[in-house]
Amino acid sequence: MAHSEGFQKLAADAKTRIKEISVDGLSALLEFRLKKEKKAE
């Protein structure tokens, strides 16, 4: 049982990390696009 509990914690940590990475990636992408649009004006 201890093994599966550890695995569940790892899976939860991974999901949290993936969410954080995707949020960081989206904000970086938005900033990049905004900078490109400002240059185009």
Automatic annotation (TrEMBL):
Record protein name field: Uncharacterized protein
User: This protein's superkingdom?
Assistant: Bacteria
Query: To which species is this protein native?
Result: Pseudanabaena biceps PCC 7429
